[in-house]
Amino acid sequence: MKAFTSVISTFLESRTSRQNLMTLVKLLAVFAGLVALFSILFHVLMEREGQHHTWITGFYWTLTVMSTLGFGDITFHTDLGRMFSLLVLVTGVVFLLVLLPFTFIEFFYAPWIKAQAAAESPRSLPPETERHVILTVNGPVNRILTRMLRKHGFPYFVLVPTLAEALEMRERNHPVVLGDLSDPETYQRIRADRAALLLTTRSDIINTNVTFSVRDVTEDLPVIASARSSAARDALELAGVTHVLSLEEMMGQALSRRVVHADSRAQVIGKLDQLVIAEARGGADLVGRTLADCGLRAATGVTIVGLWERGKLIAPEPQSRIEEHTMLILSGTAAQIEAYNEIHARPHQDDAVTPAVLIVGGGRVGRATAAALAEREIPWTMIEKLAERVRYPDRTYVGDASEFELLVKAGLHEAASVIVTTHDDDTNLFLTIFLRKLRPRTQIICRCTHEANVERLHRAGADLVMSYASMSANAVFNHLKDGDTLLLAEGVSVFTAPVPRVLADRPLSESSIRNDTGCSLVAIDANGTRTMDLSPQTLLPADGTLVLIGSLEAEERFHRVYPS
Q1: DSSP label at residue 466
Q2: Between 82 and 22, where is the model more confident?
Q3: Residue at a domain's end among 241, 275, 299
Q4: How far is Cα 425 from Cα 282, in angstroms, rounded to an integer?
């Protein structure tokens, strides 16, 4: 009864619902008037035929004919009476069997269901709620982030301003809260002062209003917001945002960092305190050799913790061979990475001294990529289809990137890397196939808008694919974990875990972490010291912490094999 009363009150709160209810009442009144009119006419015509019936019989006849039951126990004998029967029958079919049910469902039952759902959508969280993540929309970024939050046990709630969005979130089994995004009381009701993080990726104006409203409730909550312009970034910072996600700039920086020099220099792609993770293409002196033959660790101190083969992470083995397209994932200190560069960053004989990069697409991401390459002093040229989007006319070639002559003119044959930055995944797929056929040895880096297309682009020939959603979700999750986990591009996870009991005080040679899980041990933390120079004789301390690297699937496998 209490729930029924709540639904009724929620239904009647809406002006539209009240209007629909009045429409239904009017239709029922018209129906009652028709029944009364037809019953009166029934008596008049029956009297003319010499038949006498009670008023109850009149109502009985009218309802049976209008509902098409028509038992046939009471009938007219004249043509006029039969014509009247047809009129009552047609009116009943149109009104009682078509118009009234449609009106009831459209204007009463459907709003009733919505009101019931609204009554079940909470507008506040229990007082004991804490350390939860608040999301303001469930876009591509949040869809990946929610999977991470569920996997790592972080509670989260999606805050939406409309009932339609709340119903959509409920259908997707997301915990949802209904409330005005610009009302500080909303954030009081969802316990923002006890939350772990708030992420808002709506429009710049809404993100600013959300940040400003949250700051009326708490100054301590970390707020991460997306921004698409420098003006929006300034407004968010004034409103009190903790971290701004400049998506185009982030993508441009990420794409430029993954350009591998023709001299095979190792490029830093992540840091975890003093631990540095870098990526390098095997130089001419390494291609064709196994990891055991390279002796990288003895010569430089770096450890090969993974191999990239066209987007697939492979656990390193001593017999693993370095091929022409193999990308090495290295771990070590900054000094060790620099030592690697001093020894192995030597130009290929057939490569230009200053390698160039060809950027396909001159939109916001393409321009951000160009700016990031300029900071690294890497020369670049660009192809843009629309002349009005050109910002660097001296380096931009206007036209369709699928035209071979234009590609040659833009410097395809001189480019060590090609970066495809258009926003359309189908276009990127076509260009990747086309470019891979033209330049089998060139590094192709591709932007991806939808996470589902990452694997397709890899199969098309892209050496590296980066998506908005995964990149932004990784950045947010790294901020949430506060140094415990580092999510790199392409699904590589650097994470920490306590030394499993079954491995405590045993040498590394007696463990089978890599074989059992696919993760590689990078370092060991114990007594406030991080040890990165590991050997088979290194002991795994019982009170220590392991620093490991592996794919997200390998990380999940590690936690299954060695549960905390």
Answers
A1: E
A2: 82
A3: 241
A4: 29
What's the rounded mean pLDDT across residues 163-179? 82
In this prediction, residues 514-530 reach a mean pLDDT of: 86
What pLDDT does 485 receive? 63
Q: Please, are residues 400 and 386 in contact by the beta-carbon 8 Å criterion?
A: no
Distance CA 92, CA 105 (A): 18
Domain interval for residue 59: 2-120
> Residue 7 and residue 559: Cα distance in Å, rounded?
44
Q: Which residue's entry shows tokens 């009985």?
A: 60
* Structure token pair of residue 285: 């002196």
- Looking up tokens 């009116």 gives 91
CATH (domain of 13): 1.10.287.70
What's the total number of domains in the chain?
A: 3
Q: In what order do the strands lie in the sheet with 223-227?
A: 176-178, 156-160, 133-135, 197-200, 223-227, 243-246
Residue 130 carries which side chain, given as an amino acid letter? E
Q: Are 484 and 492 in contact (CB under 8 A)?
A: no
Smallest Cα–Cα separation from 331: which of 478, 152, 513, 550?
550
What CATH number is attached to the domain comprising 225?
3.40.50.720
CATH of the domain at 300: 3.30.70.1450
Kindly state whether residues 279 and 231 are assigned to the same domain: no
| Most confident by average pLDDT, 399-413, 478-492, 524-538 | 399-413
Question: In the listed set 120, 149, 183, which residue is the last one of a domain according to the structure?
Answer: 120
Question: What pTM, to 2 d.p., does this model score?
Answer: 0.67
Write the CB contacts of 273 (distance below 8 Å, at least 6 apart in sequence): 483, 530
Same domain as 301, residue 336: yes
Task: Give yes or no for a contact between 176 and 160, defined as CB atoms under 8 angstroms apart.
Answer: yes
